[in-house]
Amino acid sequence: xxxxxxxxxxxxxxxxxxxxxxxxxxxxxxxxxxxxxxxxxxxxxxxxxxxxxxxxxxxxxxxxxxxxxxxxxxxxxxxxxxxxxxxxxxxxxxxxxxxxxxxxxxxxxxxxxxxxxxxxxxxxxxxxxxxxxxxxxxxxxxxxxxxxxxxxxxxxxxxxxxxxxxxxxxxxxxxxxxxxxxxxxxxxxxxxxxxxxxxxxxxxxxxxxxxxxxxxxxxxxxxxxxxxxxxxxxxxxxxx
Length: 240
Ligand SMILES: [Fe+2]
Hints:
Elements: E1 2-6, H1 19-31, E2 36-39, E3 42-43, H2 50-53, H3 55-68, E4 74-77, E5 80-81, H4 87-92, E6 104-108, H5 118-127, E7 131-135, H6 147-153, E8 157-161, H7 162-166, H8 171-182, E9 188-190, H9 202-215, H10 217-224
Parallel strand pairs: 1-2, 2-4, 3-5, 5-6, 6-7, 7-8, 8-9
Helix pairs in contact: 9-10
Bound molecules: fe (ii) ion.
Fe (ii) ion binds near residues 5, 7, 80 and 192.
């Protein structure tokens, strides 16, 4: 599996607290069948900013520690960005990290609000030939708006949290997660793992099993691995 949404970098947000916890999360990831993990620290202006300030440095530190500990796991870096009105401008200025593809970016669906301008913001990102991935809309009031369907129809993508499919956030969130799987709106499922004990990488393998059981192995593989390959592959424009 490829886990495209994790808070595995230490000390930059509400995820891993230190290197010991980071390495434990990585060991668990390998144990459950994750071969590549993308570190996506929160970026929330005025609150969590260190993930993009020192993310590259921490990623190198992680690679070195994985090698020393003989943990066979590929890692790369992006960020989970809370939407803010100036976001498009920041992206154009290269101030916000994309996935290694250079085209995809993870936009957090706010957990307690549904900004009226969010749909337009996502459209503007698509206009720039980017692919916004809306993280866990099933956990957000956005689930009740036209935004998820509009995003998918216009070429954006949706990432569900593994825990949502498993009922970690309650039955209503679980219901929305399975609705989005059923409608074909979900492109990816990721662990959104924050810690080594609860909300850890095992959620992804458990969700994968649930999807395989409910919807078949092919979709389970697509949601947890196949479609994510393009995110971790640097984009190459063969025409130039
Ligand atoms: Fe997250």
